[in-house]
Design brief:
8 strands, 8-stranded parallel β-barrel, alpha/beta
Length: 212
């Protein structure tokens, strides 16, 4: 079982790894759903995680709000991704949509290409995609070689409320792309969820128990 701790900065990273987190999702500004952290934070988190047998996935997102990015914002994303890659992050996390709430193919394809050998994660922007289009969009991500999708199963509801849909999507993926479940997942409920949703990885800010 892979436990991915969502970290807003470096502060809780050592404790999270000590408590069993094998992977860190590193971002800033969680109040806005997570944006790109500073390069110093990325660098120090990667150094610490790698020294303690953990990996780091770095958020590439220039602002909060929607996932429709103009040319200037997209250029920021590309530059941030390139710098994160130079700092030896293990994975990059991004998600670009068009006005129809479908994947912005040109932007995502370019980010995947820039990622090279790094793992790539399409984040919860996937939950903005209408369910009628979700399988088609998943097929496209698989064709691009995207490593995994982070999802809680829909624009609304908890993972518990969306578990039937999550099971359907995991079955459809059939091992061709990883499905990372987040959104209300904690150290106290992920084991129960694992008996109901057939995935081997869970994500959250409370995925491991840390003393405040």
């Amino acid at each position: 079982m892979i436990l991915e701790f969502c970290a807003e900065n470096f502060t809780k990273v050592p404790a999270a790894i000590a408590q069993g987190a094998q992977r860190i999702e590193l971002c800033d500004n969680l109040a806005q759903g997570g944006t790109t952290p500073s390069y110093a934070v990325i660098e120090q988190t990667i150094k610490y995680a790698h020294a303690h047998q953990a990996t780091v996935a770095t958020m590439i997102r220039p602002r909060g709000g929607d996932f429709i990015y103009n040319e200037v914002e997209f250029e920021m994303m590309k530059q941030d991704l390139i710098r994160a890659k130079k700092l030896n992050t293990d994975a990059v996390i991004f998600g670009c949509l068009n006005k129809e709430h479908r994947i912005h193919r040109a932007q995502v394809e370019e980010l995947v290409t820039l990622s090279g050998d790094m793992a790539t994660v399409f984040h919860m922007a996937f939950d903005e995609i209408p369910r009628a289009s979700a399988k088609e969009e998943m097929e496209w991500l698989i064709a691009q070689g995207v490593t995994r999708i982070l999802t809680h199963g829909g624009r609304t509801g908890t993972v518990f409320e969306n578990e039937e849909w999550l099971r359907e999507m995991i079955a459809y993926a059939n091992g061709r792309i990883e499905i990372l479940i987040g959104g209300g997942v904690t150290s106290e409920n992920y084991e129960e969820l694992a008996t109901r949703i057939p995935t081997n990885q869970f994500h959250g800010t409370k995925i491991v128990k840390i003393e405040e």
